Structure formats: structure tokens, C-alpha cells
Amino acid sequence: MSYLEYNAKYVPTGPRKLLYLNWPLALLLIAVASIGFLMLYSVANGNLSRWAEPQMKRFGLGFFAMIFVAMVPIWFWRNISAVAYGISLILLLSVEFFGEVGMGAQRWINLGFMRLQPSELMKITLVMLLAAYYDWLPLKKISHPVWVAIPVALILLPTVLVLSQPDLGTAILLLTGGGALMFMAGVHWAYFAAVIAAGVGLVAAVFQSRGTSWQMLKDYQYRRIDTFLDPSADPLNAGYHITQSKIALGSGGWTGRGFMQGTQSRLNFLPEKHTDFIFTTLSEEFGFIGAITLLVLYALIVIFCIVSAMNNANRYGSLLTLGIAMAFFLFFSVNMAMVMGLIPVVGVPLPLVSYGGSAMLVLMVAFGLVQSAHVHKPR
Amino acid sequence: MRKSNNEKLTSQAIVSRRTLLVGGLQAGLIGVLGARMHYLQVQESDQFRFLAEENRIKISLIPPARGQVFDRTGRPLAQNVQSYRVTITREDTDDIEETIARLGQLITLDPALVAEARLELEKRRGDTQVTIAEKITWEELTRVAANAPALPGIEPQVALSRHYPLGPDFTHVIGYVGPVSDYDLSRIENPDPLLNLPRFQIGKTGLEAREEEELRGSAGTMRLEVNASGREVRELGRKEGKPGADIQLTIDHMLQNYVQARLGSESAAAVVIDCESGDLLAIGSSPAFDPNLFVNGISVSDYNGLIEDDHRPLVSKSVQGTYPPGSTFKMVTALAALEAGIVTAEDSFRCKGHLEVYSQKFGCWKRSGHGNVSLVQALRESCDVYFYELALETGIEKISEMARRLGIGERHDIPMSAVAQGLAPTKEWKREVKGEDWVIGDSVNASIGQGFVLASPLQLAVMTARLATGREVTPRLIKTIDGVEQPSGAGAPMGLNENHLRQIRRGMYEVINHSRGTARGSRILSKEHQMAGKTGTSQVISRRVKCDEVPWRQRDHALFVNFAPYDNPRIAVSVVVEHGCGGSSTAAPIARDITLQALYGDDPPLSEYPTRDHGRIKAQQRKLREMRPPVSGEEPERA
């Protein structure tokens, strides 16, 4: 969609754009992030400067980044989608060679002032590129095998790279998020049926290959699956995390044990309590009410995004918003399902709440894109 | 690139439709998450709350204070003293070497213990408290406490440890405590969880072991909040346990001290029993050792010294040692014969220096013979032939039965280690154990306490007390447990003919107080303290040369039993000196001194001794006084 076409309609310009921001969405983001600050303060046993304060600074920075990105016209972002994707891919490749190893996986590039996780970046830029691709692609070609193969390749390329780090969680998110976007763009449902069938076959193959020479996953990944399937089999080692996590959640009850009163988190029974498992602390200290409140806030964020996308006649903006909403949905639902013992433990942080710099920044930039699409939609 | 309006609308419709589908799926998944939350947090909440509590709370045992032991006058014999030590915890220490060096400037460190601590620090978990200095003084402890800020990870600790203030005097009676060993645990059916506490001590020997149940008490519990690594965070509450019961012994610590000092370096044992109540006033066994050495961990060289000593200091000879009673057994033979009605006290036998039984010759100690002897004279002069004759007529069964009635071959189960049963042999016993028939010579030997007869000093004292009172006196070691008086050992009359007993006692009286008595040298002069007794010399091996000319191990055992005062028996005493050669020369003087000490409760006046002994006795009293324990309360405080 060209600039001329926008000129035909009313598009806010200059500072007036601020008035057209999706403010309810912004407020929801602030609300969720605030819950995060509270929990980081709590898991640090009342130490503000340990996690809560840096997190606030990052969120502040992220919030300004969001506004900034929102002010830039959406067609600019559409035009650089391919470039952004390319840069992410190069960074992802460079992790293979220069990355720092943490928690048994190569994930970061040390930029000096911050440690960048290219896989985080890729989650957004992949959505950008796919949205731009389907904006460009005429509708009648959409289900043509060649035009389906291209986005599949665009998804699989980073997925394979991420998987080789190895980061199973992000790989699944990329695959699911990308797939969902293709589905929403209108690719014929038969492709998805075929992929799901193939996926089931792959899972079977993964389990069959265990212990053979062509074993497909690393041992620790298999162990995580075992742990998930039967946490009680090894409650002190591999199953420890999930068992303790469920105890923390369950002991919260309706109203929780009170702010900073959670024994599970305070006495260090919880693993990575400030990052991936922060939801357990929230659930322990604020109970079912606290947990469901966070879930509702997350759902509202997704809903606001979807509503914004449905009212956006601009196909790029609409698909981009939907793709980011989908990614966001996957982040929190995978994390929650993980700590509640519904799926195996994969390293996915709780968006906006878990302590972590690059994830927070990238997410806020993504919401900046959502805001930009909202501000610059044809009216 | 331009798209037609038419196409745009279609694409929007597809997006909307698919979005709703995906949105619906998302709503469904959110519903699943919410349902899972509800399941975990509402439905299963109680179970998880319980698990969380179980996670966080550790029940820890509080060891009870061990019961103390006192003598009959209330003097502490085994007590708990505070011992001070210093521990180091790795995870709280910045630089272990630096901290140890700084600690070394404050107190003197034992290099061996420090080396051991370094090893443990490496091996054990970071939050383990490792002992780096033990048995330090209060001053040293306060110095460490005052400098705590400069010593991260260092903690001064106060604990109770067992101390035996009178050390060697009571070592055989009370024994000692030590850390629980795997062997100890394996012997106990259902061990008290206390036993698994590190550094917990239980009784290993003597009263400490026998009365372990009473002394130990029961554990209290402490509810602690712990973190995931098991480190204590705070105390949530406690339930106090029950301290162990205090035990008061019947033993008088002054008399016990005197007995030990008087026995000196001899391999010997002595027992003093109250004839009235059966209270054991002293149970001496020498040589002794310091039980405190064992509490603190004895060194190998000290231990080997105790093991290799041929005087066997580790053995409590007064109850564990059994000896042929020799002539001290003659009262048993005599009483058995009198009670059986076979002889009367007036009946006499002729001693010509030996007795021939079925062409086997049994000699009297006096080769020239005693001539015609009746009971009193036979006891007084210890004529062997007289008792041979009695044995031939009375038979071993009656003699052994009398021995058991008088307490020989019966186990007096006082709470000390390995109390011996002794032996009053019977024909049946010999068949079963030796696989041989009883021969007449066995009876002859038994009549004078040789052959198979075995008695412990305790049994000899009990025998003497029973002869003195005619009642079934049983020894009592514990006066009170937790303030509760234990049953008296006074015993009921044994139903022995008082006239027979009087004859026996008369004989025993003359042993000491008659001009021809075998123990005349050890008499007591004052009428109201005069004692009655019997010497005994039991052969270790047969020999023809004089006793003091053979190696120590081959010499005869010297024995002596007595009661006093003769008119009104209050105490009975037995003394056994291993390889002491002569009952009258070695054992009797010791028994006499002990008797006087017991009757006076202090050093007796010299007027009780024959004049020619005064110089020697005076010197002896002075020497033994130096070994007395300090008056109660004057003992210096121990760290």
C-alpha cells in the first residue's frame, strides 16, 4: 500500500499521533509489567535493586522504544521487514560462532552494553517478514505450492538455527507462530492438516530414535520430556523443578500466602524463580485470584491486538498485529503451561514479568509495531 | 502494486474468519490454563499446602542432659560440664586460610585438628559446621566471640560433655561414655533417633552402660524452618525433652577413694558392704585408669598401655574377677556340714598333716599337723584336714547348695559391666561342662575353696555379710534414681541355725583375735570395733618353693574376708590381692585398714593398731591422705 493511498484517507501526523495510540493496550502492558516488578521485588526478599529496579529501567526504556516505533509510519516498517529478517538471521548465524554458552546452550551475543539474544529478535522479524510477504502476495497465489514453500523456508531457516543452539522452546515458538500467521493469511487448510499429521509422525520418530545412533534430541531434552511425563519418578533431580513448582502453585490456594510470604520461593525451593518460574511465586503469594488476574490481563492484551487487527484495512498492519499477538499468546501460555506441569519444561520466560533485558526490549519494540499499525491504519 | 477493492475485501474476510478461528483456539487454551490453575490452587490446594509445609519444616532433636551420678553423700561422680569449641562453616567464610590464620592469633590451634577440619571442609557440604578447635577455655571462647566480625563463618559453640570429677576412683563402677558406634547401633533393636545425632554419647561400660535408659532421658524436638539446601533459617517452636534421671549410688566417695588408694598399684580388688542394708559402700579394683581419657578420645599409646599392662587395669576385678576362694570358703563347708547335722561344733577330727583318701594323699598347709581339732579351732588355724573330713561326710551337693545360699555361684546383678557368676560346682555341672564324672578328690579340693570353686570379691563380701547377719543380704549399688529410693538389700532371715552361725562367727573371731589365729597380726584393738574374718590363700599352680621366689604370675592369690564389729556387725569386707602370696600377710592388713576407715569414716586413731605398727601406719595414713579428693566445692572449674 503506497503513501499516496494513505493520503487519500485521514492519517494523523506529528504529535497528534500520540492521541491515536492504542492507549488501553499500553495501560495493560504497564499493568502486567507492574505485576512483574512486584514479584521481582518479592523473590529478591524485598531487595529492590537486585532485580526489580533494573527491570523497571528496562521497561521504561522499552516503553519509550514502543512510542518511538509507533510514531514511525507502518509502511516504513513494512519496507524494512526483509532487511530486519536478514539481520536477525545473520545474528543468529553468528551466535553459532561467537555466541556465549549459558545453561548448556549458545544463545547470546555480547554487544558490550547488553547481551543480545538473536532468537528473541527473530521471533518478531519473522512475523514482520511474513506479514510483508502476504501483503505483497496476490490472494489467488496464496495457496500455490511454490508461494507456500517460500514462507515455509523463511520459517524453517531460523528454526533450524535456533534448534541447533539448542533452544527447543524458541524453535517451537517460531514454528507455531509462523505457521499460525500463514494460517491467518489464508493459506489452504489442507497444508496445515498435512503438517499436523507429519508432526505427529515426527514425534513418534523422536521417541523411536532415542538411544539409537540417529538420536534426534539431546539427552537433556529427552530427560525433560521424561520428567514431564512422570515428575515423581525422580523428584529430587530432573523432576525437582516441576514438583516444587506445582507445590508452590498449589499451596497458594484461593488468595495466596500473602506478599513476600511464599515459603517455596523465599526458601529457594523454586528454580530460576526470577526468570522462567516467576509465575509460581505469583501464584504462591497471591493465589488463584492473582494468577487468574494475570491470565485475564494477558488475554486482554491479545484481544485488544486482535480487535485492532480486525479493524485495520491495511493487510500488513493487520497481519503483523495478529502475528505479534499470536507470538505473545504463545509466550505466556507456553510458560504457564510449563510451570503448571501441562507441557515439558522448555526455557520460555513469562513475557513482561520474567527478569530479562533483551526479551523485554524486543517485546516492547514489537508492541511498538502493533501501535504503529494502529496509529497508521486507514481511517 | 495495486490490488482491487474486491480482492482486498475478500482477503479481509479470510483474515477475519481465520482470526476468529485462531482466537477461538486461543480462548480455549486460556480456558485450559485457567482450569489448571483452579485445579492446582483450589481443588488440590490442601495437599500442596501440606507438601510445602513438609518442605519447609525440619524437626530437629534436642539432646537431653544426661542424668548425673552422685555418691551416697551427694558428691557428684559423673556430671555434665560445658565444653567449648569453635566451628567453621565454609559457605560463610570468605577465605578459609585467612580466617584460620586469624583464629590462630587469638587461640592456640591444634594442627592435627586443623588439618582434619580442612579435609572435612573440602568434603562436606558448604553449610556443614566443622569443628576447628575443641576443649578451649572460657577466656578463649570469649576472645573468639568478641572478634566474631573479623572471623566470618567462625562460630563459638557451647556443648555439654561428660566429666568424672573423681576420675580413676570410680572408673570401674561408673564406667564412661563415648560416641555411638555402628556396633552399638547394630545391637539395638529399635534405636532411639537420638543415637544418630552427631557427637551424641552413650554409656560404654559400667553403670553408664547398664543404666543407659535412665541416664539418657528423652529428646525434645525443635521445629526449624529450612531452605532448599537444608540450612536452618529460624526456629518455629520447641518441645522440651526430659533430662536423664540422676542416680545416687550407695558408695561413699571417701571410702572408695581410700580403698583405691590403699590397694595402690597391686592387682587387687576390695568390696565393702553394709551388713544391715546390703549397700555397697566401696567397690575397689586396682589398678584403675582415668575414664575422662575415654570421653575425650583416648590416644593410641595410652590405650595400648592399658591393654598391655599385666595388672589389667581395664578389668573391674571386684565383680568381673573370679578366684578360687581358698580358705575363705571353709565357712561354707563348715556351715553345710553343721546344717546337714553331720557334725556338731564340738566334734573333732585328728589332723596329722595330711589325709589319705582312697590312697590319695591330701596335705594340710601345716605339714606337722594340728592334732585334734574342732570347728572353732579348725577355722582359727585354717586346718585343711578338718574340712576334708567334713567334705567326705557332707558331700559336694550340700556344700555347693550352701555356697549358693551364701551367694557364691549366684550372679548378684548390680549395674556394673560383666558381673561374674562365679561357680559352686556340682556333679551334674562337671558332667555337662567337663564331660567327666565327679571324683571324691574334687569334693576334697572344693572343701577348702580350691579346684572348681570360683568366687568374685563381691560374692565373698556378700557371703561374709550373710554369715554375719544370717539374713539374705543382697548387694545394692543404686540408692536412688531420680530421687526415688531403690529397694533395700537387707533381705529376710535365711533360716539358718543361729547356733551354727554363732560357732562359725566365733571361729572367724578367733582367726584374728586369738593368739593362734592366722590373721592375728591384723587385729583391731578396741573392743567395740574388733573384727571377725578369714584368711585365704588360693593356689595358682602347684609348686614346692616359697611363694616370693617364683614369677609374679605364678604366685598364690591372697584373700581375706571379714565383718566388723564382731558384736554388732555393720560392715563386711572382702579383699583379693592377685598373686599376693598370703591372705594373712597381704590381704588381711588391707582389709583391716579398710574396715577401720569404714567404721570411723576417716583415719582411725593409732590406738586401734598394735603398738609396733604405729610408725608404719602413721606414714601410710599420711601418704594416703595426700591422695584424697579435694573437699567438695573446692574443685577448680573445668573448661
Task: Walk me through this protein's architecture.
The complex is a heterodimer of chains A (379) and B (639). Chain A has helices at residues 3-8, 23-43, 48-71, 74-79, 81-98, 118-136, 145-163, 168-185, 189-209, 219-229, 240-252, 263-266, 278-310, 315-339, 357-375, and strands at residues 100-102, 105-110, 115-116. The two termini of chain A are 14 Å apart. Chain A has one domain. Chain A is mainly alpha-helical. Chain B has 639 residues and is an alpha+beta fold. In chain B, a hairpin with a 5-residue loop joins strand 8 (220-226) and strand 9. The chains are: A mainly alpha (379), B alpha+beta (639). At the A-B interface, helix 8, helix 11, helix 13 and helix 14 of A face helix 1 and helix 2 of B.
Task: Map the helices and strands.
The complex is a heterodimer of chains A (379) and B (639).
Chain A: H1 3-8, H2 23-43, H3 48-71, H4 74-79, H5 81-98, E1 100-102, E2 105-110, E3 115-116, H6 118-136, H7 145-163, H8 168-185, H9 189-209, H10 219-229, H11 240-252, H12 263-266, H13 278-310, H14 315-339, H15 357-375
Antiparallel strand pairs in A: 1-2, 2-3
Chain B: H1 5-43, H2 45-56, E1 57-62, E2 69-70, E3 76-89, H3 96-106, H4 111-123, E4 129-136, H5 138-146, E5 154-163, H6 171-174, E6 177-179, H7 182-187, E7 201-203, H8 206-210, H9 212-216, E8 220-226, E9 232-239, E10 247-249, H10 253-263, E11 268-274, E12 280-286, H11 292-295, H12 300-308, H13 317-320, H14 330-339, E13 349-351, E14 354-357, E15 360-363, E16 371-373, H15 375-381, H16 384-394, H17 396-405, H18 427-434, H19 440-447, H20 457-469, E17 478-481, E18 484-485, H21 498-513, E19 532-538, E20 557-564, E21 571-577, H22 583-600, H23 614-625
Parallel strand pairs in B: 2-10
Antiparallel strand pairs in B: 1-8, 2-3, 3-4, 3-5, 6-7, 8-9, 10-17, 11-12, 11-21, 13-16, 14-15, 17-18, 19-20, 20-21
Helix pairs in contact in B: 10-22, 14-16, 14-17, 15-21, 16-19
